[in-house]
Amino acid sequence: MEPLRRRADFEQVFLSGTFVRGRTVSLRILERGEGPTRVGYAVGKRLDKRAVIRNRIRRRLREVLRRLELRDGYDVVVIARRRALTDGAPELREDVAAVCGRAGLLLGEESSA
After folding, report:
1. How far apart are CA 22 and CA 4, in angstroms?
2. 3-state secondary structure of 48
């Protein structure tokens, strides 16, 4: 899993990718077909004006996704939702795994998105 960094890559995922919503996160997914999966995070000021809080959410999401085994060949943008501020680590881990499973990103599961 690699980071998704370039603005053009984020825009391409937002324009052409499929959307899967969960309680704590939403995902925009674009299948590239080759290479490692790249993941980017969108934690807007709408959630909290303080950068410290937004960065904490980003770090928590990055750690949860690092522990999941994702398929190769996708660009994924993880969009934090308001509930990500208040849910504990187990709830966040469970919801992110469920959303990734519904999107067909987890190894060993069929794609449904």
Report:
1. 21
2. coil
Strands 2-3 and 38-42: parallel
- For residue 14, give both structure tokens: 């937002």
Domains in the chain, please, with CATH? 2-103 (3.30.230.10)
- What are the pLDDT digits (tens) for 30-79? 998 888 999 999 999 999 999 999 999 999 999 999 998 889 999 999 99
**In what order do the strands lie in the sheet containing 18-21?**
2-3, 38-42, 74-80, 25-31, 18-21
Helix (H) or strand (E) segment spanning residue 52:
helix 51-66
Entry pTM: 0.86
Burial 37-69 (b: 16+ CB within 10 A, else e): bbbbbbbeeebbeeeeebeebbebbeebbeeee
